[in-house]
Specification:
Helix content: 25-40%
Radius of gyration: 25 Å
Order of helices and strands: HHEHEEEEHEEEEEEEEEHEEHEHEHH
Number of helices: 9
Structural class: alpha/beta
Number of domains: 2
CATH architecture of the largest domain: 3-Layer(aba) Sandwich
Strand content: 25-35%
CATH superfamily of the largest domain: Nucleoside phosphorylase domain
Largest sheet: 13 strands, mixed
Amino acid sequence: MELSSLTRCHLPLLLLFLLAGSSSMALPVHPAMDRVQWQVDKVNRRGHSIGLVMSYIDEATALESSGYFRPWHVLPFVDLYGRRYHIGSIRGVNVIYALTGQRRLNAAVTVQTLIDVFSVSGIVHYGTAGSSNDSMSFGDVSVPKFVAYTGAWTWKKFKSLKESDTELSFGDFNVPNGGENLLGALKFRNEELYSVGKPMKEVFWLPVDSAWFKIAEELKVTLERCNNTFCLPATPKVVCGLKGSSADMFLDNAEYRKFLFREFGVSTVDEESAAVVMTTTSPGIPVIVFRGVSDLAGGEPTWSSTSLMNLASINALKVAAEFIATVGKQKSTTSARSANN
C-alpha cells in the first residue's frame, strides 16, 4: 500500500489518537493563577475603574502620601505579572493604579495589562518631565494635546542628502563653527499604529482623547509653590495644549532639547507618555497625560532635579486627582439623568 493511501485511510484514527493524547497531556492550571483570576473577577464586579499609571517611585510616593487614594478594604491590590495593581478610589471614583517602571516597554506592558485584564474606562498618566520650552517653569504642569516618540531614528550616511527639515545633522553642532561630521545625520521615523477596525498607519503625533482634553482645559487647580526644602519664586501654572516628546533616554543636554523645541515644537520631554498614549489609542480607550516640570533637560542649576522632583510630582498628581474627580462627577450626573428618563 502506498504511503499516501495509508495516510488517507488512517487519518481519522490518527486524529482521534492525537486529540486523546493532547487532552491527557494538558498542563493543569496553576492554583496561584486561579486565585488571581478570582481576584480580578472580584475587582471587575465593582464596575468600571479609571486606570492611573506613573513611572517613578517618587511619583508613586506622592500618591501614597497625598491621602487622595483610598484602598478598597475588600481587596486592596492584585499582583499580576510581577506588578502590583492597587485597587481603591479617588474622591469616590473607582481607581486602579500601578507603578509602571521607566521607559516605554515597561509603560506599555503595564497599560496593556490594565486594559486587557481589568474593566477600565480610561487611562490617566501623570509624572515628571524635563522642559524644552523656556516659557515652562519649574513646578508647572503640562497637559499635552499631542505626544510623539522621538527616539526612533534612521542613521544616515556621512554626506547623504538632506531629506526633510527635521533631520538632526551632527555637523551643525561642531564647535566653534558648524561643518561636516563623520556621524552624519539622524532622520526621525514614524511609529506604526495598529487600531481596532482600521488598517495600520504610520504616525508621528499621537493625540490624547479629545473629550478628556476638553475636561482638563476647564480644571481650576491651585498648584503648590513649596516643598519641604525649597520654594519657587512664583506659583506654578497648568498649561494645556502643548506637545510632549518621549524617548528611551533621560535627556540632559541643552542643545538637543533646544533642537526638539525648534524642530518639533516640543515643550516637555519624558520616557513614557508616548507609549501610554499609543497603547490606549489602539483599542480606542480614552487617555490623558499630566506632566510636572522638574528640570530643564540640560543646562539647569544642579539643585533643580533633586529639589523639585517631589514638587513636580505633587503638582502633576494634584491636577490628575482633580481630573479624575471631575470625570467621575460627570459620569454620575449622566447616569442619574439616564435613570430619570
